Structures are given as C-alpha cells and as structure tokens.
Please model this.
Amino acid sequence: MNALGMVEVYSFTTAVCVADIVAKTSDVKIIAFDRNRPISPDVPAPLVMIVKFEGSVAAVNAAVEAGVEYAKSEGKYIVSHVIPNPGDGVEKMAYLMDVNKDKFNKKLPKSFLGVDYSAPANNDEAIGLLEVQGLVASIEGADAMLKAANVRLIHSEKRLGGRLVTFIIRGKVDAVSAAIAAGEENAKALGEIFGKAVIARPHDEVIKFFDIEE
Model:
C-alpha cells in the first residue's frame, strides 16, 4: 500500500457519493466503508461513515481533495487524512469493512484484501440511494420506489446505527430518479430523510460493494 486515504462524513449516502467521486477523480482503489457513532445528537445525520481507499500518494491526495469538496458542499464533512507508506499491520486494519451487515449480497466478501474484482461488462446503469430513519418509513419508501419505476433493489443497510435504513436501487437514470422521488415522498410522511442520491454510471469501485451477485 503506497498511501491510505480516509474521508469521514455524516450518513451512508454521503459516503457512497464520496467514494464514487474519489474513484472517478484519480486512480485509487476503494477498500472499505467503515463506521463510527456521532459524539453528539446535534449532527447532520446520526451516523458517521468513513470511506477508505489506497493508491499512489499523488492519486490519494487528489482523491481526498475531491471527496472533501463534495462532502463540504453537502454540509456533512467531518475530517480527512492521508497516510503515506502505512506501517506494518495498518493494511489489514484499513481493509476492515462495516457494511452488508444484513447479508443482502451473499457473495460480498468480509474484506477486499487480496480479492480480485471483475467489473460487469454492462455497467451503464444508475444507482439510487434513499436513507431514512425508521424501519417502517424506509420500507414504505422502498415499496414506493419499486412500484414507481422499472428498478431493482440491489442492497440494504439496516444495522449501521442511528435507526437509519438505506435501500439502494439500480436501473436506467430516468427510472432511478423517478423511483427515488416517489420513495422520498412516501417515506417522509413516516420518518425523516437523511440521504438521497442518484449516481449515473457509478464507478466499478463502488458497484463492487453492492452488486456482487450480478
């Protein structure tokens, strides 16, 4: 590992968007999503997520800068750091991953350390994320998304903390956009929305965390 980059933000949705921007900015490998808990209830979202990635020092520095810029624009930036030439033992710790607690994607490895990933040949679809506080509200949002457009559910996160539930859907950009809008409209009547996003043509380094079974 030449360099380790870390960007810490509020909300899982923000973290996924940061990861996509980071991967599209420079030649880095997204190695894990990790989590922490907010130190105060007075925060933009009741969940802290860390995006971890590796590459050359120059690539990691550029990636961190781009990720930080996005997170700040969303008002959900916490801290970032780059470690050039991490010491012995840091690599295994860096690869620790805290997503897929619900085992939605059965083939998702517990760690991408030493794992070779082949991107799908037709990765031209968008993904959409809806992050809602409360299971009832989130399921209502998911139901509305799947009924609103031709999309499919590819991932769920219900055990990261803060009572937040994130459903990730995939399909054509227009369909995903329509589905997210419908999901938000229905879910917000029952719970608070802490994240929503549509990512057109997500980077392979992001898709590998959520679409393993395809």
Q: What stands out?
A: The CA atoms of residues 137 and 187 lie 5 Å apart.
